[in-house]
Design brief:
Shape: elongated
Low-confidence stretches: none
Oligomer: single chain
Radius of gyration: 17 Å
Structural class: alpha+beta
Length: 167
Protein backbone atom coordinates (compact mmCIF):
# COMPACT_ATOMS: atom_id res chain seq x y z
CA UNK A 1 0.00 0.00 0.00
CA UNK A 2 1.37 3.38 -0.91
CA UNK A 3 2.40 5.42 2.11
CA UNK A 4 0.11 8.36 1.24
CA UNK A 5 -2.93 6.07 0.92
CA UNK A 6 -2.03 4.33 4.18
CA UNK A 7 -1.71 7.70 5.94
CA UNK A 8 -5.04 8.85 4.50
CA UNK A 9 -6.79 5.68 5.71
CA UNK A 10 -5.28 6.09 9.19
CA UNK A 11 -6.61 9.64 9.26
CA UNK A 12 -10.02 8.55 7.90
CA UNK A 13 -10.51 6.09 10.77
CA UNK A 14 -13.42 6.63 13.18
CA UNK A 15 -11.06 5.80 16.05
CA UNK A 16 -8.62 8.57 15.04
CA UNK A 17 -8.77 11.35 17.67
CA UNK A 18 -9.38 14.01 15.02
CA UNK A 19 -12.67 12.39 14.00
CA UNK A 20 -14.15 12.77 17.49
CA UNK A 21 -12.56 16.21 17.87
CA UNK A 22 -14.24 17.38 14.64
CA UNK A 23 -17.57 15.82 15.60
CA UNK A 24 -17.60 17.50 19.01
CA UNK A 25 -16.63 20.84 17.46
CA UNK A 26 -19.60 20.63 15.07
CA UNK A 27 -21.86 19.52 17.93
CA UNK A 28 -20.77 22.48 20.08
CA UNK A 29 -21.18 25.01 17.25
CA UNK A 30 -24.61 23.74 16.12
CA UNK A 31 -26.03 22.24 19.36
CA UNK A 32 -26.60 19.03 17.40
CA UNK A 33 -24.68 16.76 15.04
CA UNK A 34 -26.06 15.09 11.93
CA UNK A 35 -24.16 11.99 10.80
CA UNK A 36 -24.75 10.24 7.50
CA UNK A 37 -23.78 6.56 7.26
CA UNK A 38 -23.26 4.35 4.25
CA UNK A 39 -22.69 0.63 4.13
CA UNK A 40 -23.38 -1.37 1.00
CA UNK A 41 -26.76 -0.07 -0.23
CA UNK A 42 -27.81 1.21 3.20
CA UNK A 43 -27.86 4.98 3.75
CA UNK A 44 -29.03 6.48 7.03
CA UNK A 45 -28.93 9.81 8.86
CA UNK A 46 -28.59 10.13 12.63
CA UNK A 47 -29.27 13.08 14.90
CA UNK A 48 -26.82 13.31 17.82
CA UNK A 49 -27.39 15.76 20.69
CA UNK A 50 -24.53 15.08 23.11
CA UNK A 51 -21.02 13.68 23.45
CA UNK A 52 -22.46 10.69 25.32
CA UNK A 53 -24.87 9.99 22.44
CA UNK A 54 -21.96 10.30 19.99
CA UNK A 55 -19.85 7.79 21.96
CA UNK A 56 -22.79 5.36 22.16
CA UNK A 57 -23.45 5.80 18.44
CA UNK A 58 -19.83 4.92 17.59
CA UNK A 59 -20.05 1.72 19.65
CA UNK A 60 -22.91 0.47 17.46
CA UNK A 61 -21.24 0.96 14.08
CA UNK A 62 -20.18 -1.96 11.89
CA UNK A 63 -16.80 -2.62 10.24
CA UNK A 64 -16.25 -0.88 6.89
CA UNK A 65 -19.17 1.51 7.45
CA UNK A 66 -18.52 5.03 6.18
CA UNK A 67 -19.51 7.90 8.50
CA UNK A 68 -19.89 11.42 7.17
CA UNK A 69 -19.89 14.58 9.28
CA UNK A 70 -21.12 17.87 7.83
CA UNK A 71 -19.13 21.04 8.47
CA UNK A 72 -22.00 23.34 7.48
CA UNK A 73 -24.95 23.86 9.76
CA UNK A 74 -28.12 22.14 8.56
CA UNK A 75 -31.24 24.10 7.77
CA UNK A 76 -33.89 22.73 10.11
CA UNK A 77 -37.27 22.66 8.39
CA UNK A 78 -39.16 21.54 11.50
CA UNK A 79 -38.32 19.82 14.75
CA UNK A 80 -40.67 18.55 17.42
CA UNK A 81 -43.38 16.08 18.30
CA UNK A 82 -45.50 14.83 15.41
CA UNK A 83 -49.06 16.07 15.90
CA UNK A 84 -51.73 17.66 13.70
CA UNK A 85 -50.15 21.12 13.94
CA UNK A 86 -46.68 19.75 13.10
CA UNK A 87 -48.04 17.90 10.05
CA UNK A 88 -49.99 20.94 8.83
CA UNK A 89 -46.90 23.20 9.10
CA UNK A 90 -44.65 20.78 7.21
CA UNK A 91 -47.20 20.18 4.46
CA UNK A 92 -47.61 23.94 4.09
CA UNK A 93 -43.83 24.32 3.65
CA UNK A 94 -43.78 21.51 1.08
CA UNK A 95 -46.51 23.22 -0.93
CA UNK A 96 -44.71 26.60 -0.76
CA UNK A 97 -41.47 25.26 -2.21
CA UNK A 98 -40.60 24.48 -5.81
CA UNK A 99 -38.22 21.70 -4.80
CA UNK A 100 -38.03 19.71 -1.59
CA UNK A 101 -34.81 17.85 -0.72
CA UNK A 102 -35.26 16.98 2.93
CA UNK A 103 -34.43 14.23 5.39
CA UNK A 104 -36.68 13.24 8.29
CA UNK A 105 -34.92 11.68 11.29
CA UNK A 106 -36.91 10.08 14.08
CA UNK A 107 -36.18 8.37 17.35
CA UNK A 108 -37.85 5.20 18.56
CA UNK A 109 -38.77 4.44 22.18
CA UNK A 110 -35.59 2.29 22.48
CA UNK A 111 -33.50 5.31 21.30
CA UNK A 112 -32.73 3.72 17.93
CA UNK A 113 -33.15 6.12 15.02
CA UNK A 114 -34.59 5.99 11.51
CA UNK A 115 -34.34 8.37 8.59
CA UNK A 116 -36.20 8.91 5.34
CA UNK A 117 -35.66 11.12 2.33
CA UNK A 118 -38.55 13.51 1.68
CA UNK A 119 -39.10 15.04 -1.76
CA UNK A 120 -42.87 15.56 -1.67
CA UNK A 121 -45.99 15.38 0.50
CA UNK A 122 -46.53 11.67 -0.17
CA UNK A 123 -43.01 10.78 1.05
CA UNK A 124 -43.52 12.97 4.12
CA UNK A 125 -46.77 11.15 4.94
CA UNK A 126 -45.04 7.78 4.54
CA UNK A 127 -42.17 8.86 6.80
CA UNK A 128 -44.46 9.93 9.65
CA UNK A 129 -47.13 7.25 9.19
CA UNK A 130 -46.51 5.61 12.59
CA UNK A 131 -44.81 8.56 14.30
CA UNK A 132 -47.73 10.47 15.84
CA UNK A 133 -46.60 11.56 19.31
CA UNK A 134 -42.93 10.88 18.56
CA UNK A 135 -40.13 13.39 18.15
CA UNK A 136 -38.61 13.98 14.71
CA UNK A 137 -36.41 16.53 13.02
CA UNK A 138 -36.68 17.43 9.35
CA UNK A 139 -33.58 18.94 7.76
CA UNK A 140 -32.62 20.16 4.33
CA UNK A 141 -30.30 17.57 2.79
CA UNK A 142 -26.69 18.48 2.05
CA UNK A 143 -24.35 17.14 -0.61
CA UNK A 144 -22.64 14.27 1.20
CA UNK A 145 -20.28 13.77 -1.78
CA UNK A 146 -18.84 17.28 -1.47
CA UNK A 147 -15.55 16.86 0.39
CA UNK A 148 -15.29 20.62 0.95
CA UNK A 149 -18.22 20.49 3.39
CA UNK A 150 -17.84 16.97 4.78
CA UNK A 151 -15.51 14.84 6.85
CA UNK A 152 -15.48 11.12 6.06
CA UNK A 153 -14.20 8.27 8.20
CA UNK A 154 -14.50 4.50 8.08
CA UNK A 155 -15.16 2.08 10.90
CA UNK A 156 -12.03 -0.10 11.10
CA UNK A 157 -11.94 -3.88 11.10
CA UNK A 158 -11.37 -5.73 14.38
CA UNK A 159 -7.59 -5.29 14.01
CA UNK A 160 -7.96 -1.48 13.83
CA UNK A 161 -7.13 -1.25 10.11
CA UNK A 162 -9.44 0.62 7.77
CA UNK A 163 -10.45 -1.47 4.77
CA UNK A 164 -13.23 0.44 3.01
CA UNK A 165 -16.09 -1.57 1.59
CA UNK A 166 -18.03 -0.91 -1.59
CA UNK A 167 -20.39 2.02 -1.51
Amino acid sequence: MKEDIKTQLERENTTHPDFKKNALKILKENSHLIIFTRYSANKEFYHIKSEKEFDEFLKTRINKELLTLFKNKFTIIKSGIVNDHFIKEVKSKINEMKKVDWVAIGKEKDNSQWSAFVANEEEFEEAIEDEFGNEIIIIEDQDWFNEDITIHAYVPDEDGIVRPGSY
